[in-house]
Design goal:
- This protein has 169 residues and is mostly helical.
- It folds into two domains: 2-71, Orthogonal Bundle (434 Repressor (Amino-terminal Domain)); 88-165, no CATH class.
- It has seven helices and no strands.
- The chain has helices at residues 2-12, 17-24, 28-35, 43-52, 57-61, 73-119, 131-165.
- The two termini are 26 Å apart.
- Residues 6-60 form the HTH cro/C1-type domain.
- It comes from Faecalicoccus acidiformans.
- Keywords: DNA-binding, Membrane, Transmembrane, Transmembrane helix.
Length: 169
C-alpha cells in the first residue's frame, strides 16, 4: 500500500523519481525501492516525504491514524515495523525458493551421474549402420559428453549458492 501511494502521489504532483529524490536528499534508487516495495522509509523520512507530497503520513501508509497521534513517531515506527516485517518475510520466502531450487539442481545432477554410471553408455555398442540408431546414439553421446563436462561446474556453483543462502544477514 505504501509503495503504491508514494508512486501515485509523486506522479499526481508531477515529480519524477529524480526530482523527488533531490528534494528529500536521497538517491533516485531509494525512491525506486520504496515504489517497488523493496524497502521503506524510516519514520523521519516518512514525515519529510509526506510534506513533499503535500499529504499526511496516514494517507501515505494507507490507514487513518487518529489525528492526535498522526505525528507520533512511536505510531509511525510501529506501522513501519509491520511493513518491514512483511518485506523480511517476503525476502525470506524468496531465499528459501532459491535455496531449494539449487538443492534440486544438485539432486538432478547426482541422479544424472547415477544414470550415466548405471547405463555405462550402452548406446556406444549400438549398430550405427541403422540411421535411426545412429542419430539417437549421436544425440545421447552428445548429451552425456556435455553433461559430464558441465554438470560438475554447475554442481559446485549450486552448492556454493546453497551455502550462501544460509549466510546470516
Amino acid at each position: 500500500m505504501l509503495s503504491k501511494n508514494i508512486k501515485t502521489l509523486r506522479k499526481a504532483k508531477g515529480l519524477s523519481q529524480e526530482e523527488l529524490a533531490i528534494k528529500l536528499n536521497v538517491v533516485r534508487q531509494t525512491i525506486s525501492k520504496w515504489e517497488q516495495d523493496l524497502s521503506v522509509p524510516d519514520a523521519s523520512m516518512l514525515i519529510r516525504l509526506a510534506e513533499e507530497l503535500d499529504t499526511s503520513v496516514s494517507t501515505l501508509l494507507g490507514e487513518e491514524i487518529a489525528d492526535n497521534k498522526s505525528n507520533d513517531l512511536n505510531v509511525l515506527s510501529e506501522k513501519l515495523e509491520v511493513i518491514n516485517l512483511k518485506l523480511a518475510k517476503r525476502n525470506e520466502t524468496k531465499i528459501k525458493v532459491i535455496r531449494y531450487s539449487l538443492m534440486g539442481i544438485c539432486v538432478f545432477i547426482v541422479l544424472g551421474f547415477i544414470v550415466i554410471a548405471l547405463t555405462s553408455n550402452e548406446f556406444m555398442t549400438w549398430d550405427y549402420n541403422d540411421p535411426e540408431l545412429a542419430v539417437a546414439g549421436t544425440i545421447l553421446h552428445g548429451i552425456s559428453w556435455v553433461f559430464v563436462r558441465v554438470a560438475p561446474i554447475i554442481f559446485v556453483i549450486a552448492i556454493i549458492g546453497t551455502i550462501l543462502t544460509y549466510r546470516k544477514g
